Task: inverse folding
């Protein structure tokens, strides 16, 4: 790889590293190239997919970077380990792609984001190879490794990574609940997480998303019997009686290798009641887990039916979580790009921290024919501006790419950008790796 990059640099050939190709913010496009006539090469890393070693004594494993999620996880599971990294794009994304986009898996509230799971990296750059030290618990000056987290292919090609592994959990249980509103569910999570509940997967759906899930689930079941209908009616009465006619569904998965998860579950259930909620059956979480990688497959069918679909995500401190949901709903209702009668605005919280949460929004609205791109731009601008004005970040896990670059450049501190440009100049003096991306050189 060093040789390819060296030669490409000598001949000014532009290189785009390609992992799984699942990026959703335009990282892989080269539309804004200054030198339009430059030769461009895409390096497909998928053949670099070997397990190099598992070190059980140190609980680490080294892989080539082009390995896909399921292949990596299978290799670890066979030895009793897991990485615990399951982004929704798990089936088609790669270890290298996760690292350079700072990906978050669905279980990252417990396992950590990918940057928490990496022990060391081997990175090929046009200036040579960097092999970061093989341990992270030292105090030997500045650690260079984090520079590559989020570098989106601009500083070098990650060729190998040593990751921190865990034993496969022996105890696993779901705690589910219904809350009268999104705010009560957010308060529940804030208190739970700040008082020692450590779930792997968490999800709090707003009332729209809960209603859609419940409709999809009921349409899957066979012809309902008289007793099932009776049960449904009884459920409706109980929900109304508990003030839960438009409930918000909460699911959390507790998993552990060692001691049992029961005490956390008891505590979490007492908090559900404290926030006016009702404990719901564990099966809801198990069913969600079974189908968790399937929903994105609906996107293309919807687009074919001229339904605009997009998802956007941000990290928000707790004090802004509740108003972010309300403000976004209000702003969308005012926008001409969103059809407030026919459109759907769904929200959920997908990762929680002591300090705040990742909020994830999904939009469906009729496509405005012949102005699809403008419609997308209007909605994207609206949402990103609401994020920025309400203490949100540009992204929690999708990265910067081309789509978020203007906000990244506007909101980054100028000196930090200059430092990053200087690093880029040192590692990639001819600017052949994803030029124009991130810090815009
Ligand atoms: C349906 C769907 C669901 C998603 N869900 C999640 C989610 O839950 N969590 C999440 O974090 N993300 C999610 N994503 C976004 C995406 O999957 C992640 O950004 C993922 O980390 C990208 O990995 P990849 O291997 O596909 O990288 P690519 O898309 O191939 O590349 C992304 C960027 O990284 C660069 N690159 C790739 N590999 C390397 C390498 N080895 N060295 C240097 N540069 C490299 C590329 O040049 C590009 O700039 C989702 C995407 C989709 C389509």
Result:
């Amino acid at each position: 790889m060093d040789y390819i990059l060296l030669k490409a640099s000598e001949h000014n050939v532009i290189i785009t590293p390609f992992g799984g190709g699942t990026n959703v913010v335009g990282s892989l496009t080269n539309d804004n190239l200054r030198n339009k006539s430059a030769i461009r090469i895409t390096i497909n890393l998928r053949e670099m997919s070997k397990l190099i070693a598992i070190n059980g004594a140190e609980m680490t494993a080294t892989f080539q970077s082009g390995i896909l999620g399921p292949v990596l996880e299978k290799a670890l599971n066979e030895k009793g380990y897991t990485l615990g990294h399951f982004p929704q794009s798990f089936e088609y994304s790669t270890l290298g792609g996760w690292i350079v986009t700072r990906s978050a898996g669905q279980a990252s509230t417990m396992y950590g984001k990918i940057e928490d799971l990496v022990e060391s990296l081997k990175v090929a750059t046009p200036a040579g190879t960097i092999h970061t030290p093989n341990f992270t618990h030292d105090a030997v000056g500045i650690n260079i490794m984090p520079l590559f987290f989020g570098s989106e292919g601009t500083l070098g090609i990650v060729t190998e990574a040593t990751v921190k592994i865990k034993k496969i959990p022996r105890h696993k249980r779901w705690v589910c609940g219904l809350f009268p509103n999104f705010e009560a569910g957010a308060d529940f999570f804030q208190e739970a997480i700040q008082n020692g509940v450590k779930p792997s997967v968490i999800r709090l759906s707003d009332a729209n998303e809960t209603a859609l899930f419940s409709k999809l689930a009921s349409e899957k079941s066979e012809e309902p019997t008289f007793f099932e209908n009776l049960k449904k009616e009884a459920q409706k009465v109980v929900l109304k009686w508990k003030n839960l006619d438009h409930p918000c569904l909460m699911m959390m998965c507790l998993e552990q290798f060692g001691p049992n998860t029961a005490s956390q579950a008891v505590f979490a259930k007492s908090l559900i009641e404290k926030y006016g909620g009702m404990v719901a059956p564990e099966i809801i979480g198990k069913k969600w887990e079974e189908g968790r990688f399937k929903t994105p497959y609906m996107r293309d069918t919807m687009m074919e039916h001229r339904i605009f679909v997009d998802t956007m995500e941000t990290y928000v401190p707790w004090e802004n979580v509740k108003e972010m949901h309300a403000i976004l709903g209000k702003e969308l209702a005012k926008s001409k790009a969103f059809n407030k009668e026919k459109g759907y605005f769904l929200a959920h919280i997908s990762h929680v921290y002591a300090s705040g949460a990742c909020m994830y929004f999904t939009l469906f609205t009729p496509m405005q024919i012949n102005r699809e791109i403008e419609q997308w731009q209007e909605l994207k601008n609206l949402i990103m501006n609401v994020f920025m004005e309400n203490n949100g970040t540009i992204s929690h896990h999708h990265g910067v790419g081309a789509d978020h670059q203007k906000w990244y450049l506007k909101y980054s501190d100028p000196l930090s950008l200059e430092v990053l440009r200087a690093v880029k100049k040192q590692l990639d003096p001819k600017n052949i790796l994803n030029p124009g991306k991130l810090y815009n050189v």
Remarks:
- The pocket of flavin-adenine dinucleotide is lined by residues 16-24, 27-28, 45, 65, 87-89, 93-94, 96-98, 100-101, 103-104, 152-153, 157-158, 296, 397-399, 434 (CB under 6 Å).
- Residues 262 and 297 are 35 Å apart (CA to CA).
- Residues 296-402 form a domain with the GMP Synthetase; Chain A, domain 3 fold (CATH 3.30.300.330).
